[in-house]
Design a protein that fits this description.
Oligomer: homodimer
Number of strands of chain A: 2
Order of helices and strands of chain A: EHHHHEHH
Largest sheet of chain A: none
Largest interface: A-B, 45 and 46 residues
Low-confidence stretches of chain A: 70-85, 93-113
Number of helices of chain A: 6
CATH architecture of chain A: Orthogonal Bundle
CATH superfamily of chain A: lambda repressor-like DNA-binding domains
Radius of gyration of chain A: 16 Å
Chain lengths: 113, 113
DNA sequence: AAAACTTGTTTGCGATCGCTTACAATAGGG
DNA sequence: CCCTATTGTAAGCGATCGCAAACAAGTTTT
C-alpha cells in the first residue's frame, strides 16, 4: 500500500487495529495519547504529529519503506514483488491479521476516556 | 530504506534535496512553509505535521510504502526485490539523483527568508 | 583572502494542537 | 425491542507549533 495522504495512513491504522481486535482506547493507551487523537488520526488528520504517527505504525507492526521515484515516466510504481506483500486494506480482514484477537481483546468492561 | 523515526525521514529528505541541488529555501518555497520548518524537519523534528511531511516526500518524488510486519520472527524484513530499489542515503549522491541540477538551481541571488 | 551562499539557532507571538469531558450516533448481541 | 460497547463529535483551555526576523556558524565560490 502506498502512502500519499494522511488519510491513507489513518485508514490503514484503523483497519489494522480492528483486525487485531483493538479499540481506539486500547491503541491510545499503548501510544500514550488520548482516544480523541486516535479517532482524529484514523480519520485522516493532516496535522498529526510525525512521532505519534510512526509510533502508531510501530505499535501495529506496520513497516514503512521509502522508495525513489526519480523519473516522471516511472511515476506509477509497480508494487514491489516480495514474499512480504504490501498491505491492502481490503485484504487485512480476509487474510486475518487477527491471530492475537483472543490475547488482545480485553474482558468486556465499560471504560471511557 | 526503512522509516522508524522522524530523523529517518529528515535525513532522507535532506540527502535527496541536496542531491537535487535545492537549498532549504527552495524546498520551503515549494512546500509553502518557512525555511525554519525545513531545517527543523530535516533535523528530525518529532512534531512535524504529517501533511507537510508527506508533501515534502511527494515534492522530492519519494514514495512511501507500508508493509505488514506481523510476526516477531520476521521482524527484520528483507528489502523487497524490485527494479525500483529502496533508497539508501549513502547511495543517493553516488547514483546521482541530480539530472535536474541545472534546471533546479536558480540563478545566484541573495535572498533570505 | 574576501565575498557569497547555506545552514543552524534564537526570540516573541499569533495560530493551532491535544487534552478532558461529555453527549450523539452507530454497531453488535441477546 | 433493549442493552452494551464503540466510535464520532464538540467546547473550552493550557500547551505547543510555525512563523518572521535576525544573528552565528559553516561551506562554497571568486
Amino acid at each position: 500500500m502506498f502512502i500519499r495522504r494522511p488519510a491513507d495512513i489513518g485508514d490503514l491504522v484503523r483497519a489494522t487495529r480492528q483486525a487485531r481486535g483493538l479499540n481506539q482506547q486500547d491503541l491510545a493507551d499503548r501510544l500514550g495519547v488520548s482516544r480523541w487523537w486516535v479517532n482524529e488520526f484514523e480519520g485522516g488528520k493532516p496535522t498529526a504529529r510525525l512521532d505519534l504517527v510512526l509510533r502508531a505504525l510501530n505499535e501495529l507492526q506496520i513497516t514503512l519503506a521509502a522508495y525513489a521515484g526519480d523519473d516522471a515516466e516511472t511515476a506509477a510504481p509497480a508494487p514491489p514483488a516480495s514474499s512480504r506483500s504490501p498491505i491492502d486494506i481490503d485484504d487485512i480482514a480476509d487474510r486475518g491479521l487477527a491471530p492475537r484477537t483472543e490475547a488482545a481483546r480485553p474482558a468486556r468492561k465499560r471504560r471511557r476516556r
